[in-house]
Amino acid sequence: MSIQQIIQMLRAWRWLIIGVAAIVTVTAALYALSLPKTYVASSAVVVDIKGADPVSGTALSAQLLPGYIPTQIDIINSDRVALKVVQALKLAQSPDIREQWDKATGSEGSIDMWLVQMLKSKLRVSPSRESSVISIAFTANDPKFAAAVANAFAQAYIDVNLELKVEPARQYAVWFDERTRTLKTNLEEAQQRLSAFQRENGIVATADERLDIENARLNELSSQLSAVQAQRTDTSSRQRESASPDSLPEVVGNSLVQSLKAEMSRLEAERDQIASRYGANHPERRRNEAELAAVRSRLATETQRVASSIGAANRVNQSREAEVRGALEAQRRRVLQLRGKQDQIAVLQRDVEAAQRLYDVVTQRLAQSNLESQTQQTNIVVLTRAEPPTFPAAPNVVASTGMGGIIGLLIGIAMALVLELRNRRVRSTEDLISAIGVPVLTVLQAAPVPRRRAGWRPALT
Known about the structure:
By secondary structure, this protein is mainly alpha-helical. It has 13 helices and 4 strands. Helix content is 69%, strand content 6%.
């Protein structure tokens, strides 16, 4: 079937098509006019995705950015936000709404949750494609009610977003407060153990200062021991040489010994002179020999005294060496003990420092959590508030009428085609050829009807 045949068929059934289209169009217009008017009020909020937290200063991770806006949309569509709207507008206290709830549910269940589901069914949340703006639209029969609910959803979303940020901070603050008290007790106990250990061991200064003092004493005793040992070695060697005391440096350097030797030399020289002049029994010679014997005796006594003083000095040095050695050993043991105490004090001090660091960290996190739990700042701002719409969003009479006209036209065309196909007629040369299968020789056109002129009268015969 060609396009020309279809056009001829539609032309033949044009009044049917026009009638059906008109009926459907009028019906659609009347139906649209009979529907209750609904209004759509819309508010918009801006979500600052990359804004830093005012307390911690941290920004949202780049990996969480793609899912942030969908999460915010889910929050707006949540029962928690809708329940806040119900409570903010006090919808459950309206007698008309309670009557509707009673008819719908038979007073079963919670009216708040029934209102939540009703509001969510008429809520439409749509994000902007290229920005962080979220549109919140609500549909209702009353334009003022639609605007109030849309604004209430925007404010409830901001409040819930703030609660979701504050509630974990409050829980953290409670937990950190408990941990702070525990860590403070641990820190005090560690400090008490350190103080008790210092009191028990009489450590007033720090362990490092005490150890430095004791090490200085140990070094001093070591120096003293070295000096005493050198002195003892010297006196021991001189004591061994005391068998010939005349060669001892102490004897040689003694002034009394030297004067006695000089006196003895003078008396010996005098004796030689007397011996050359007088006999052996001469009184001068006897006096000289008596004086010489007395000087020798005094020289021997003084030499022996000096030699014996060297032995006494050696014994003193030995005693001093033993005393210094004992003091050195005692000081060495004291230093070792102090080092052991220093190690124990270092352990106790590390415990105190670790407890202090942990206490400081938890105290800092407690202060931060307290600030976060008291914050009233959010990264969401209302961009535009919803205003009562002037014109209804539905029904759209013009669109409904136009859609009805299109549908009626299609129905009329379909009816015409169905009727034509059920009872085919010859409406063109193609129809005749397809009906009888004989070629058409010529087509006779209908004679034109003459146009009547004004004042024209047919001729009478």
